[in-house]
Amino acid sequence: MDRNEKEDQLIEQLKKMPQIKDDLSKEMLLKRININLNKQDQKQDRLWYKWFLPSVASIAMVFILIIVAQQNLFQGDDQIMERTTSDRDMSLRSDSNNDEVQMFLADEEESGSATADEADNYQNENDGDDLNILDSARMALPTEEDQLVYYDHDSFVDADGVETFTVTVVDVNANFVIPLTLISSSSTGDPNDYYSRINSFLSDEAIEELGISLYPFQDMSFEFGFDGNVVYLTVPDDYQFSEGTFAEGLLDEVLSIMFADYDVDTVILQTESGQQGIEMSHSGLVTEIELLDQLANSAYKIYQASSERLLVPITRSSDEGSTFNTIDEAFAEMQVDQSDSYLTASIPAEVVDITVEQTSNEQLTVKMGPYPDFGDNILTSEMIEAILMTAKSFGFQEVAFEIDGINGEVGRFNLNEAVPVPDGINAKLIAD
Amino acid sequence: METTFDSLYEQYHDDLFQYVIYLVKNRQVAEDIVQETYIKVLKSYDGFRGDSSEKTWLFSIARHTAMDYFRKQQRQQGKLASFFNRTQEMERIKDKDQLPEEIALLKDEMKQIYQLLDQCTLDQKNVLILRYIQTLSIHETARILEWSESKVKTTQHRAIKKLQQLIELD
Prior knowledge:
The complex is a heterodimer.
Chain A: H1 3-15, H2 26-95, H3 99-135, E1 149-150, E2 163-170, E3 177-184, H4 192-195, H5 204-210, E4 221-224, E5 230-235, H6 251-258, E6 266-271, E7 278-280, E8 284-286, E9 288-290, E10 299-303, E11 310-314, H7 327-334, E12 343-344, E13 354-358, E14 363-368, H8 378-393, E15 398-403, E16 409-410, E17 413-414, E18 419-420, E19 424-425, E20 427-430
Parallel strand pairs in A: 3-20, 5-6, 14-15
Antiparallel strand pairs in A: 1-19, 2-3, 4-5, 6-9, 7-8, 10-11, 10-12, 13-14, 15-18, 16-17
Chain B: H1 2-24, H2 27-44, H3 54-83, H4 87-93, H5 101-104, H6 108-116, H7 122-133, H8 138-145, H9 149-169
């Protein structure tokens, strides 16, 4: 068969390709279309709303500026007049001891001194403006990319064959553990598929973006035991826990958080050649590690040492190092910045009027007084996310928010209803 | 709106779904793209001027919607590839989707053709699907792809040659 004949045959074969039927019924398709059209309409309405308010605010601001500018102009004129009057008064003072004139001068001096104070205040406010500009990114409307928590029903999670699993990393100073939730789009459902090749998940670029110290699992692999209560951690025969590669002291915490969603209670350590135990530089030969509920009673703060912002559970107070016995203690810790650890407060320190009440065994109610930066912005959304995770660590299922000045939506959250606690944090999609 | 949908569905749905599923090779994605195509068409139906036939207009919107999907997927994969050290597995993901039942029942030779379509360029794939699998005319194909008819002819010629080469190499 020559080339042309082969090509003709190929064309015939293409024409015989079968019709692939659509399994979706016409009724179902129409229903989905209607739902989507409604959603888009609602989104349009919201967009209009989001556009309208800032526009009205901008116009109002322009008017205020015009009024202020006009007042300044008049004040300028007044000052010229005052100066003229003052000159005139100086001349009067030089040749007169009139009491009325003395009183008038006294008033003028007081007025002058008040103006100087105002100028100082304005200067101070302007100094503050520089800081405000730095924070302006957090005043933006929160988008999907700003989300630090995820729910199993989120669009990128809620699909057939999608599984999530947790890995843990360590901050740059190797002081605390940061959970990452990896989302796999084509899972077999077997955790061994992920944990056996855990060392391949984060590239050097990812480590840099996350602002974490070296990925702790570079040379490790994990395998679940048959009964599901035991995981085997295997390292090369010459593996050494040494400073700079992994914080040995955090190993139990790293493992406890990583396997918190499973029924694992013990991790057995071994080398590739089957030797039981791994030699640790401080603890000596360690054969197994018992896992504990490390995330209980945590205060969640924001960690940012590079471009990524991550939610981090903190289990001890920054001043005394004590664990949190009550959620109030955790909330107090959430208002503390720890800049040397790249941790920022998830609740602004300036918010003083905070009440935390246990409404039921499952529900927590959080009431907050006014704060000028609260609104539909990243700052407020991140605060809500951190509070939800903190509440979850104390065993609550949902949180009702009563935040002064906020009545409605903040990002993805509808605060008119109690908000369920998230399913995970710091979600990253991976391709399998 | 329902009447318009009924009319479009009855006349073109099978062909539309056929075009999209051969293009994206994933049932779920095809359903989403077809759905999105109907939404776009229904929203702009009143503005349809009839410069082209209803069918080529519908297919043209489907093509643009599919292109958006590919672009989005490319961006996401680029992002993922830089985030995760998984380049090899990213390659493998392309082939992970199961064969549709209708294709799985075919002879190996036909299955091979179905799979090798993905190794042609997107333009070539578009032309092969529209011209041969959908048996549309050169004129209709040109209207859908917004090309000249001579470009359709050239691309179709190259596409067949490429596919033949791929079969021989496989």
